[in-house]
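Quick log. Single chain, no ligands specified.
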Amino acid sequence: MQFITQSGGSIGPIGQGTWYLGEKPHFFQQELAALQTGIDAGMNLIDTAEMYGGGAAEKLVGEAIRGYDREKLYLVSKVFPYNAGRKNIFQSCENSLRRMNTDYMDLYLLHWRGSIPFAETAECMEELKERGLIRDWGVSNLDADDMEELFRIPGGESCRTDQILYHLGSRGIEFDLLPLLQKKDISVMAYCPLAQAGRLRQGLMESPAVREIAQTHGATPAQVLLAFLLSKPGVIPIPRTGKASHTLENAGAARLTLTGEELAALDAAFPAPKHKTPLDMQ
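-> predicted structure:
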């Protein structure tokens, strides 16, 4: 599946995340420049959430998109599980739109599963579409069993994406969730595609296999990690950075195509599990 804007334009293969952005005033201008640099480089999908900084990231997005053609952007936000029912979702959506300085969202996601039934959330999402407040809706952090349950409820098949943690060092979704979503033509938005931090991220960036491939292409390890995800049909990585230089580095990964031999080397260094595993969160 390829995301399409309202005007029919396509979305760049790499998006921009905003987790932890907009929270510190002294970094605001730097983070604003990073997002705008990404838009200018073709990274016109921007993902955020009402949870991020209590709406601060959405406000940052709202400032970043000023002056740009709205129909050439693809804006995504997420609703708290406890707001994803008839009592609160309409107000939550309108609050997010106001903070983002737009009158509609291209995609609105259930941030994670809560106590509100899927059927109620799906019904409300469809009503938001009818009101013109969102174009499409999806989910986040739902595993294969959750998705199967979602597909069984009225309107569940209208889900457009599942946003989940996915990177070279966390490949559990390849066992069952990714094949299911690909079969249903539902895109995967891969958050933390470079891993969050700590030893796992360091191990990926310093992996001999990753570094050798990067050297061969005159690329960086981060670009190799993003290119690995881009090799998977229907997967859109959404790296987050507050620095314009890193944004350009991320954007450059779209020009990197890994060979079958290189993908095999990465697979050998970081094999996918051959059994069901829980969704990772790091």
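The longest helix spans residues 28-40.
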